Known about the structure:
Radius of gyration: 26 Å
Structural class: mainly alpha
Shape: elongated
Low-confidence stretches: 7-46
Distance between the termini: 96 Å
Amino acid sequence: MSSGAPKGENCLVDMDSKAGDLFGAEDAHPTGTGGNGATGVLAKLWLPKGLSVSVAKEWFNRRRVSIRPWASFVDQRKFSKPRNFGELCQRVVKNVEVYNSNYTFIFLGLILYCIISSPMLLIALAVFAGAFYIIHLKSLESKLVVLGKELTIPHQMSLAGAISLPVFWLAGAGAAVFWVFGATLFVIGSHAAFRQLEGTDLDELLMEPV
């Protein structure tokens, strides 16, 4: 009889080592590195190199830090009708510069509302994401070549879009896009036009050379 640990323990040790390789090893993800927490889990989804979770998180944090207080953003006492077209243009240009982070979150909120309120659009997005994911996995296994050219990430996204196009058409994606842009222009344009400039903003405008 051979010495050492029993077969049952050997089996458990082998399974533990494989689990460690699956959830903690860097080489378990062909295009990224291992990690802890949510970032590590998302990294193991084999996301394309250009779609970095850290980059998106950094962009979101920058926007969140530069956002203006919402109480001041919607303060009705600071809204008035512009006296002339010149003041209207000044307000729009300056308010877009000052409240660009607030406007960005309004735009994202309208997109989220449009997606949540349309189940078919959710299905279309799921089809697009699934098609892109499968195509990208295939490209990791072996290079995908069409007409002598390798499919890059933009090409893969375009192919996934072409596959999911009928579903988007059935979901009325075109109308949804026009609604989002129309609502965004109306909300942001109205706020930028009627929101009075702060005292510091007026001083900056007066100091600008003509």
